Amino acid sequence: MTDTPDILQRILAKKVEEVANRKQRMSISDLEDIAQGVERPRGFYKALQAKVNAKKPGVIAEIKKASPSKGIIRENFQPITIGLDYAMNGATCLSILTDKEFFQGAEANLQMVRERCPLPIIRKDFMIDPYQIYESRALGADCILLIVAALGDAQMHELSDTATKLDMDVLVEVHNADELQRALTLDTKLIGINNRNLRSFETTLQTTLDLKSAIPAERIIITESGIHSQDDVQLMLDNDIYAFLVGESFMRAESPGQKMRELFAL
Ligand SMILES: O=C(O)c1ccccc1NCC(=O)[C@H](O)[C@H](O)COP(=O)(O)O
């Protein structure tokens, strides 16, 4: 096991700086104006709900160039081509990394893909301030990610309420039972269980299996990270988990969409 310094704390420290700089460049009310001119949210939750109700896999296909645990994952990184490939091959939603420092993402990637691709999109970034929620809507995001481990209770509720006010969906992400209890105090129907330990970077699908029984039936469980094989997918389906967030195994394939089709038999 790698003894990694707490990557989340490093990312969050950088986000505090980043948000402060952005606030100097554009006011929240200007962002609000821009957000109002953007096409309405596409229904991220609804798209997943339709799959889950039909007991079919709903795949949130990730567009990610690099990560702290894996370094560069995909050299030939063409976000629009990847987004269209996912859409053509049956993805339900997209996840687009916008963090630059740690994931080599970009906000422009989300905007460009949204213009060309009809799928609902989650902005995958580290939300700590309502400013970023307005910014996400202004970029065209349909859903935002809230990582419980990164947030205090009041902060988490404030961010979720801001997203709801903007008609966006919220995916709340947990890694353990304590975080899950906190996540369940939110109204959101989307609960992501991240199988990656953010200290060791190890992934185990057992995390999803261990936590799922504490989640009420009306919520949608999304298993996140570490899905690499048809057996992994089958294990989740056998345990009534129908929503998946997958990045690396798709991104390492020449055609991420075909890889998705292969893993999920779409
Ligand atoms: O992936 C990392 O190294 C990482 C480090 C710190 C915070 C988050 C991190 N990953 C984000 C994700 O949750 C994944 O991109 C997502 O679940 C997909 O995982 P995978 O299919 O294993 O690429």
UniProtKB/TrEMBL annotation:
Entry keyword Amino-acid biosynthesis: yes
Pathway(s) it belongs to: Amino-acid biosynthesis; L-tryptophan biosynthesis; L-tryptophan from chorismate: step 4/5
Gene Ontology molecular functions: indole-3-glycerol-phosphate synthase activity; phosphoribosylanthranilate isomerase activity
UniProt KW Flavoprotein keyword: no
Residue ranges constituting the Indole-3-glycerol phosphate synthase domain according to the UniProt record: 8-263
Keywords assigned by UniProt, alphabetized: Amino-acid biosynthesis, Aromatic amino acid biosynthesis, Decarboxylase, Lyase, Tryptophan biosynthesis
Domain of life from the UniProt record: Bacteria
EC number assigned by the record: 4.1.1.48
HAMAP family: IGPS_B (MF_00134_B)
Family membership noted in the UniProt record: Belongs to the TrpC family.
Descriptive protein name: Indole-3-glycerol phosphate synthase
Organism: Crenothrix polyspora
Lineage: Bacteria, Pseudomonadati, Pseudomonadota, Gammaproteobacteria, Methylococcales
Name of the encoding gene: trpC
